[in-house]
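Q: Convert this sequence to structure tokens.
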Amino acid sequence: MNKTEKTIFIAALLIGIVNLAASVVYIFQLPEQIPTHYDINWICDGYGSRWIALLISPLALIAALFIPLTIKMQKNELNRKPAGIFMLIMTCYCTAINWIMLYMFGHSHVQLGEKIDNPMIGWALPLLFAGLFIAMGNYLPTLRPNSGIGIRVKWTMENEQVWKLTHRFAGKLWVVMGLLMTAACIAAILCKAEMGIWAFILFFEVLMVGVIVPCIYAYMHREGT
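A:
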């Protein structure tokens, strides 16, 4: 790895280590039994050991440890730095998810059948997803054809010009969708609207549009024009 790639790896590694260490310290402060699951209405319907939280906490460190391998797998030198940045983004994303989950696990006073006292925390997950879309949208246009990351369909893999056009378009689309989703979440928070099933429907619709529309775009521009 060159200097830039090593810097990315070290930064992600530090994030992963600090996240895991802080998580263990936090978990030790929790009671032996904690709420581990909530239904769509944020009513607690599952209780279990506090150490179940450790199923999530190591993910950021695991993502960081995969950076050297991910970089090494890139045959195109131009993809090495973007691949490292991608894994750094995923490390940060896993860290954020971890602390959202730890916050919910920390509501030890909530008993089975009771509602969490701060259901607005549910909007943190869609907001985080929106942020990921914005970050990835800025990252996609930097990618070159490769065997692991990006909009990898027949038409982009067979024509480098189609790859560039599709990823430039997908990048703009993902940023716009991320910004719209952020605005929707902020509006819901300001209106004190509780997150319901419609929010999950919105989440999956955004995900589907973000994947399907670029594939259609690639097909329409399959000649590279």
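The first strand starts at residue 33 and ends at 38.
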